[in-house]
Design brief:
The complex is a heterodimer of chains A (174) and B (339). With 174 residues, chain A is an all-alpha fold. Chain A has two domains: 94 residues, Rna Polymerase Sigma Factor, Chain: A (Orthogonal Bundle), CATH 1.10.1740; 68 residues, Arc Repressor Mutant, subunit A (Orthogonal Bundle). Helix content of chain A is 79%, strand content 0%. Chain A is built from eight helices and no strands. In chain A, helix 2 packs across helix 3 and helix 6 packs across helix 7. The radius of gyration of chain A is 18 Å and the shape is globular. The relative contact order of chain A is 0.10. About 8% of the residues of chain A have low confidence. The model of chain B has no long low-confidence stretch (mean pLDDT 80). Chain B is elongated and about 125 Å long. Helix content of chain B is 79%, strand content 0%. Chain B is built from 13 helices and no strands. With 339 residues, chain B is mainly α. Among the domains of chain B are: 31 residues, no CATH class; 119 residues, A middle domain of Talin 1 (Up-down Bundle). Classes of the chains: A mainly alpha (174), B mainly alpha (339). The interface between A and B is medium-sized, with 38 and 27 residues.
């Protein structure tokens, strides 16, 4: 029984781990942090499988967990930063430029630019655009991951794309 | 999406991957079960939490919840027992509790007794409301309708008693009903007249009228049933019945003499009406003696029932009237003291 679960998990891990890591890295812009969140995401999947919980769509499950862990990470980071400021220890203070360093090294110029612009998108449009065009997920899957209807997901994808083009200065004729 | 720069950017992002070492490390961490399965942290108050107990033990659903339902239902039933038509529990009493009790009474005699007691109860409720000055037209109509309903049910139950041949008991039920209806109707009229400040002489209200008509109808039904012809044992009980009527008459007369008279007009009216009813009972007893002498047994028995009904009426009238008068005086005294 456990051997079957092992096999299934391994197959899912092989096919989805890079996508989850990529999603986390783009969102948190910190390599080690992205690895931690990826591990935690797959650990949750592993535990659910061991407890024989029914998972209808593995991909949607993983992206949903990853998205929530990223949100948790942002919350923790915010409180940590405020605590540090209260204590007045400048050396401990959060510095976004340090976190970007590693990511910038991993990406080419156009990719890095696009990540910056995706992160500048409004909260509601950011994930739909990323999941549709980078991870090639369907509006149905995106809707499930974000907890919205398929129609709402489609609308956000289109609006997000327009917003991205505007922010990045991309025009269809160029 | 034909934008080339966008396509290139996306292709760049898609190249982001974990290294083989990172991938293997994470996989080993997970599969190696180095991290224990996280269990939810239970609150220390879970032991005392009712909802937690419900979540933990499904058996509780079959024990605690029915128990709560029974206790709550029992509480409502108990609370509705003494409710009046102005209470929110009253519809539960008259539409749920009483019909269920009636449905669980199977013998026709018992059913007849039960309906008779309900009819008397309605009149007592009307008296209580009238005594408190709360008896308005809508409540009058409501009680009158219920009274009619109980009379119909009583009539139906009495018609079923033909088969059981317990005619002595039927006669007892009918005389009790007749006496109760007439006595309470009189008390109600007296109380309503006291509350009515318009000095309207015709104070008979809907409820007392319905009560009198019901009493008459039930008595007529008894006569039509002609139970006398069907039950020969009734003659055996004739003399004992007559003795008990005589004894009740004596007791009521003594009770009447022992009542302390004061200037209360309500008390005076009750004493007068009781005296009149006792006289009626005595007259009926005289009729009994006359019919006996003439050998007219059927008429003698009918007069005996009338006499029984009248003396019972006098007894109820005296007790209820005095009680209502005392309650009224107590309430007035309390209100006066508060001021």
């Amino acid at each position: 029984m456990k051997a079957d679960i092992n096999h299934t998990f391994e197959a899912i891990y092989e096919s989805e781990s890079d996508a989850i890591f990529r999603f986390c890295l783009v969102r948190v812009s910190n390599h080690e942090q992205a690895l931690d969140i990826t591990q935690e995401t797959f650990l949750r999947l592993w535990q659910s499988m061991l407890q024989n919980k029914e998972i209808i769509n593995n991909k949607a499950f993983l992206f949903t967990v990853a998205r929530r862990l990223v949100i948790d990470w942002y919350r923790k980071k915010k409180s940590f930063s405020l605590d540090s400021m209260m204590k007045g220890g400048e050396e401990d203070m959060y510095d976004p430029s340090d976190e970007m360093t590693k990511t910038k090294l991993e990406l080419a110029a156009e990719g890095r630019y696009l990540v910056d612009k995706i992160n500048e998108l409004t909260d509601s449009n950011r994930n739909p655009v990323y999941l549709r065009y980078v991870e090639d997920l369907s509006p149905v899957e995106i809707g499930k991951i974000l907890g919205i209807s398929t129609n709402a997901a489609s609308v956000r994808i289109n609006r997000g794309l327009e917003e991205l083009k505007k922010k990045a200065g991309y025009n269809d004729d160029k | 999406m034909e934008n080339k720069k966008l396509q290139n950017g996306i292709e760049d992002i898609k190249k982001i991957r974990m290294t083989l070492d990172e991938k293997k490390r994470i996989f080993d961490n997970i599969i190696g079960n180095s991290l224990p399965v996280k269990k939810p942290v239970y609150s220390p108050w879970m032991t005392y939490s009712f909802i937690a107990i419900l979540n933990k033990r499904s058996l509780v659903y079959f024990v605690i919840l029915p128990l709560i339902l029974i206790l709550t239902g029992g509480g409502v039933v108990f609370a509705s027992e003494d409710s009046l038509p102005d209470s929110i529990l009253y519809p539960i009493k008259v539409n749920v509790v009483e019909p269920i009790k009636g449905a669980l009474t199977f013998l026709p005699e018992a059913k007849a007794e039960y309906e008779s007691s309900l009819a008397t109860k309605r009149l007592v409720e009307a008296e209580t409301l009238a005594n408190q000055g709360k008896l308005d037209i809508s409540k009058e109509k409501k009680i009158a309708n219920l009274l009619e309903k109980h009379t119909v049910a009583l009539n139906k139950a009495l018609s079923l008693t033909k088969e059981t041949k317990a005619s002595a008991q039927v006669d007892e039920i009918v005389t009790d009903f007749q006496a109760g209806m007439n006595a309470h109707a009189r008390v109600l009229d007296i109380v309503v007249a006291r509350e009515d400040k318009s000095n309207n002489q015709n104070n008979n209200n809907t409820i007392s009228n319905v009560a009198r008509v019901s009493a008459q109808n039930i008595r007529t039904t008894l006569n039509n049933n002609d139970s006398l012809n069907k039950d020969n044992n009734q003659f055996d009980k004739y003399s004992s019945r007559k003795n008990s009527i005589q004894s009740l008459l004596n007791n009521t007369t003594i009770d009447l003499k022992n009542i302390h008279k004061n200037n209360s007009p309500l008390k005076e009216k009750i004493i007068n009406d009781t005296n009149i009813t006792i006289d009626q009972a005595k007259n009926y007893l005289n009729e009994v003696d006359m019919n006996e002498k003439e050998g007219n047994v059927k008429d003698a028995y009918s007069s005996l029932l009338n006499s029984e009904s009248s003396i019972k009426e006098a007894n109820i009238l005296l007790k209820t009237g005095i009680q209502i008068n005392n309650t009224y005086n107590d309430e007035r005294r309390e209100t006066h003291n508060k001021r």
